[in-house]
Design goal:
By secondary structure, the protein is mainly beta. It has one domain. Helix content is 9%, strand content 69%. It has 1 helix and 9 strands. The longest helix has 20 residues. The chain is elongated and about 80 Å long. It starts with a helix and ends with a strand.
C-alpha cells in the first residue's frame, strides 16, 4: 500500500510540474486531446501505451501528459471425473479454479523541442507501475477408493515500480492526425512472491500430509521495449 501511495505522490508531483511548464507557450499546433494507437502486424491498430487506453493531453505545443493503462483479467473453472471399474471400483473427482490478473499504468510528461517543424522531436519521462497476480486451486476427491482428499493452492505475484523514459519523433500530416515513432526503456524495482500449499487428507486412522512454501525476492531491472510505430488522432 505504501508503494502505491509513493507512486501516486510521484504522479501528482510531475503533473503539477508539467502544468507549470504549460504557461511558457500559448501557440497551438496540436489540439488538446488525442488517442494513440500502435501500428501492429498487417497495419492493424491497438492501444499504444496500454492494452485498454492510451491518451495524450497537450497543455500547449511544447508540453503534454500521456497516460497508458493496460488491463487483463481472466477466471475459469474446470471439473474432471474419472471412474475405474477394475480391479477396484474407484471414482475420482477433480475441481480446478484458476484466475489471472495483470495491470500496468504508465504516466509520462512529454516535452516537444521543435513543435513548429514538420518532424517534431520529443522526450518523455514518468512513473510506471505493473502488477501480475496468478492464483490456482485444485481439489481431488477419491470417494470410493482410498477415500483421500487432496488440496493444492498456488499463488504468484510480481510487482514493478519504476521510471519510464521515451524519445521519439512525430509527423503531423493532417491537422487532426499524426504518425510517430519512439524508443523507450524503463528502470524498475520489482518484488516477487511465490506461495504454495499442499494438503492430503487421508481416511480416518491414517496420518495426513501437509506442506506450505513461501518464496520472496526483489531486485532492480533495466529493460528496453524497442521501437514502436503509432498513429495519433487529435480532437
Amino acid at each position: 500500500m505504501k508503494k502505491i501511495l509513493v507512486f501516486m505522490t510521484f504522479l501528482t508531483f510531475f503533473s503539477h510540474a508539467a502544468y507549470a511548464q504549460s504557461q511558457e507557450d500559448t501557440s497551438r499546433v496540436f489540439d488538446s486531446h488525442s488517442l494513440q494507437f500502435r501500428v501492429y502486424h498487417n497495419l492493424s491498430l491497438e492501444s499504444f501505451k496500454g492494452g485498454l487506453l492510451s491518451y495524450k493531453h497537450h497543455l500547449n505545443d511544447q508540453n503534454a501528459i500521456r497516460v497508458g493503462v493496460s488491463l487483463s483479467a481472466r477466471k475459469w473453472d474446470e471439473e474432471e471425473s474419472r471412474e475405474n471399474i477394475t480391479p477396484d471400483t474407484t471414482f475420482l473427482k477433480q475441481e480446478r479454479d484458476h484466475s489471472s490478473n495483470d495491470i500496468e499504468v504508465i504516466a509520462e510528461y512529454l516535452r516537444y523541442f521543435n513543435p513548429k517543424n514538420k518532424i517534431k522531436l520529443f522526450m518523455g519521462v514518468g512513473p510506471r507501475f505493473s502488477l501480475l497476480l496468478d492464483k490456482f486451486t485444485t481439489e481431488n476427491i477419491d470417494t470410493l477408493g482410498t477415500g483421500a482428499t487432496y488440496y493444492e493452492n498456488r499463488r504468484y505475484e510480481y510487482n514493478q515500480y519504476g521510471l519510464n523514459l521515451s524519445v521519439g519523433i512525430e509527423w503531423l500530416f493532417l491537422s487532426y492526425m499524426s504518425l510517430h515513432a519512439e524508443y523507450g526503456a524503463h528502470f524498475s524495482y520489482f518484488t516477487i512472491e511465490r506461495y504454495s500449499k499442499y494438503v492430503n487428507l487421508t481416511p480416518p486412522g491414517q496420518p495426513a500430509s501437509y506442506r506450505e512454501d513461501l518464496d520472496k525476492g526483489n531486485g532492480f531491472e533495466i529493460s528496453d521495449r524497442g521501437v514502436l510505430f503509432g498513429l495519433s488522432v487529435y480532437f
